[in-house]
Write a structure and sequence with these properties.
Elements (H helix, E strand, L loop, with lengths): L4 E7 L3 E9 L5 E10 L14 H20 L5 E5 L1 H4 L4 H11 L4 E3 L2 H13 L7 E6 L4 E7 L2 E8 L3 H8 L7 H15 L12 E4 L1 H13 L10 E4 H12 L3 H5 L12 H15 L3 E5 L3 H10 L11 H12 L4 H20 L7 H12 L12 H11 L7 H11 L4 H8 L8 H19 L8 E9 L2 E8 L4 H18 L2 E7 L1
Parallel strand pairs: 1-4, 4-5, 6-9, 9-11, 13-14
Antiparallel strand pairs: 1-2, 2-3, 6-7, 7-8, 10-11, 12-13
Length: 508
């Protein structure tokens, strides 16, 4: 049976990109092909805002090359959207007609609101941020949004981007000190018009190629031990450090910088100047990267049309369900393991042996539901596979540190394995945090043992302390001998973390 596919062509001012999505076994669409061409259409928009014939020819040539790909995949559902370079062109009707007559595609020109709104949708549907400021700086425009409680409050589209800023303020490959002063003065004048940005003290979330390159460069610069840039977070000092690095290099050195696309070397500095000033204006110390942007926003809107729902109710829950389908997680079993883990943790809290906040509860719930996920690959080394899968797969709604915490707890086997897994990330955590996550991992391991036969027989768990021994009373609705056997094997991990003897009493 042929796979269902869907494609989006994004005609930007700097690049043109074709992305193909394929429906997987979970029923969701995932990116399967991503083809990029650097066209720099904004450079062919003259002073009269006419897109010159050379620019139109490059557009047609690029779309014809994409056409070979879409025909090969026998694609019919293709959305072709254009942003600032075409939107600002006074001859846009001629552009649309040329594309329609010479290619398989029909262009839809996005309004300023649509372009900003799609970026906002991508962020709220793929990151944990409930409130923030997004910035999507393209070649010919810059979209800013402010969202609060996951609702769009304000948006604005500025008619300048990295290419137009470069053309207007920087004559050579690298800016002079005077050119930088003029650029910064211009950005201040423009962004200060938006009173709703001032002192918001919310994360600035970058969308698009320039923001992605900034994150990649920083990761290379600090030898970041983690994979992926989506939901990567940098501090204000980090952004300043990279900016200083750029300005210390010759252009030839900048072109060779790891993490920076060579075609962006001459425009990365104007982009970073935008990010720097916005962080100052917002008064934020946090710059985050959303790898998902306009195309994903268009895609979310298109695939949720029938549900009258463009914002997912809960990003992490959506991600969990994707993992559940991809790795054949038994949802009933996962629910019971989570329930038992939460029961045990609450009982230990009553005794003053554990202190959890709301975020810890969420971590415990998700980690226990994902426990032993790696058995999908190999049951004998499931803990190793669990940590690898969860720490190396992008999980929408989880920042990188949070993903490591979930991976550590969901893969807990014993304290030594925990230490080996956390070794690369140890400086991210305090000793108290690591002690807590080790204990929660041990709790999850016991909770998993309490449902060893996947019969979901545990009904209640209570804990009391008698003569320095923690007595766990477990009430079951059926015979509990197999569960008792497994728990007796695994309780030593709980004893080591609690530094107390543990006794389990079962009844039915």
């Amino acid at each position: 049976m042929a796979q269902e596919k869907y494609a989006i062509i994004d005609i930007g001012s700097n690049t043109i990109r074709l992305v193909i999505y394929t429906r997987d076994k979970s029923g969701r669409f995932t990116e399967s092909e991503n083809v990029k061409a650097v066209a720099r259409l904004r450079s062919y928009l003259n002073e009269e805002n006419i897109l010159e014939q050379e620019g139109i020819d490059i557009l047609i040539k690029t779309l014809k090359s994409f056409q070979g790909v879409t025909r090969h995949h026998q694609l019919e559902a293709i959305k072709c959207v254009a942003t600032a370079a075409v939107r600002q062109a006074v001859n846009q009707d001629d552009i649309i007609k040329a594309v329609q007559s010479e290619t398989d595609f029909s262009i839809r020109i996005l309004s300023e609101f649509e372009e900003a709104n799609y970026g906002y949708l991508a962020v709220v549907n793929s990151t944990p941020f409930t409130s923030g400021i997004t910035v999507d700086i393209g070649g010919g425009s810059t979209e800013i949004t402010y969202f609060k409680n996951r609702q769009l409050i304000y948006f604005y589209s500025f008619p300048f981007g990295v290419l137009s800023l470069k053309e207007q303020f920087i004559e050579g490959d690298m800016p002079t000190k005077e050119e930088l002063r003029e650029l910064r003065s211009f950005l201040k004048e423009q962004f200060d018009q938006l009173e709703w940005l001032n002192d918001k003290r919310l994360p600035l979330i970058g969308i698009g190629g320039s923001a992605r390159n900034l994150a990649q460069i920083h990761q290379e610069h600090i030898e970041y031990p983690f994979s992926g840039v989506h939901q990567y977070v940098m501090s204000k000092d980090d952004v300043e450090d990279i900016n200083e690095l750029f300005n210390s290099l010759e252009f030839s050195e900048l072109q060779r910088l790891e993490g920076l696309s060579k075609d962006r070397a001459d425009i990365i500095i104007p982009a970073v100047e935008v990010f720097r000033y916005l962080m100052e204006l917002i008064d934020t110390k946090q710059f985050a990267l959303s790898r998902k942007g306009l195309r994903d926003g268009v895609f979310y809107e298109e695939t949720t049309k029938g549900f009258d729902l463009s914002v997912f109710p809960n990003v992490v829950e959506e991600s969990f369900h994707e993992l559940a389908v991809d790795y054949d997680i038994n949802l009933t079993h996962a629910f019971h393991v989570s329930t038992s883990a939460l029961l045990i943790s609450k009982e230990l809290e009553k005794l003053g042996l554990l202190s959890l906040d709301e975020q810890d509860d969420k971590r415990l719930k998700l980690s226990s539901a994902l426990y032993n996920l790696g058995s999908y690959i190999d049951s004998e080394s499931s803990h190793q596979h669990t940590f690898y899968l969860l720490s190396n797969r992008t999980i929408d709604g989880l920042l990188h540190k949070e993903r490591v915490i979930i991976a550590l707890m969901a893969s807990f086997k014993n304290r030594n394995v925990f230490k080996r897994n956390v070794a690369l990330y140890e400086e991210w955590f305090t000793k108290d945090e690591l002690a807590k996550y080790t204990l929660l991992g041990a709790i999850i391991k016991v909770a998993y043992s309490l449902n060893a036969t996947k019969r979901d027989i545990v009904e209640t768990i209570t804990v009391e302390e008698k003569d320095d021994v923690l007595v766990f009373s477990v009430h079951c609705r059926e015979d509990w001998k197999p569960e008792q056997y497994q728990v007796e094997k695994q309780k030593k991990h709980l004893e080591k973390q609690l530094k107390k003897s543990v006794e389990f009493k079962f009844d039915s």
